[in-house]
Amino acid sequence: MARNDLKILGAWPSPYVMRTRIALNIKSLAYDFLEEQFGTKSELLLKSNPIYKKIPVLIHDGKPICESLIIVQYIDENWTNFGHSILPSHPYDRAIARFWASYIDDKWFPALRGVAATQEENAKKAATETVIEGLVLLEDVFKNCSKGKKFFGGDKIGYLDIALGCFLGWLKVNEKLNNVNLLDESKTPGLYKWAEDFCGDSVVKDVMPETDKLAQAAKVIWAKIRAQASS
């Protein structure tokens, strides 16, 4: 891997941190991973991201870049001669990819998080239905963007693959802990196969957490979130 002065402030369970790590793997860039502990914020994090105080932060030559999708775009634009392009080459295709990435972050993942965060049966059912409806919608997006190839980005993992794929570990955890089938092969066959291909790709498999390990971390995180919500 190419050596650069690159550091990631992050935590291994975070899907947003995974986006950064996958993008760096695509470009074959080595980096130092500085682990942040859940519930605490290091001085370096507060200094590097004083506005949102959140991970991930990519530090390149001492300069911080924040927000996961912005970081992915920065990596793609800064190392154009390394690996393959992450964002689509055509402006329209880039716009479409960014639109659906925003949908995933603003609407779909909050519903997935709601499946885990709520203990009220009707609210959990509604969140589950929203997640499944979103996956059916994204099945059509996959067909249109992939044009019959393995990934949203074509033959190789691209921007929208990273935007959605980073949540697959948490999708599996929700299925495991809530005894529910969210990514159904009969309803979304394209996405089902895509998920297998994504998780098995060389740029992903070393940073995708094992489901059992992530489930244990999730129990701790969700317990703290529920405690904060009820206090």
SSE order: EHEHEEHHHHHHH
Mean pLDDT equals: 94
Q: What is the name of the CATH architecture of the largest domain?
A: Up-down Bundle
Q: What fraction, in percent, of the residue positions are helical?
A: 55-70%
Number of helices: 9
Unreliable residue stretches:
none
Distance between the termini: 47 Å
Assign the CATH topology of the largest domain.
Glutathione S-transferase Yfyf (Class Pi), Chain A, domain 2
Overview of the structural elements:
The structure is a single chain. The protein is α+β, with helices and mostly antiparallel strands and 231 residues long. 57% of the residues lie in helices and 7% in strands. A four-stranded mixed β-sheet has the order 2-1-3-4. A hairpin with a 2-residue loop joins strand 3 and strand 4. The longest helix has 27 residues. The protein is globular. The mean pLDDT is 94. GO terms for molecular function: glutathione transferase activity. It is an enzyme of class 2 (transferase). One of its GO terms (cellular component) is cytoplasm. It comes from Solanum tuberosum (Potato).
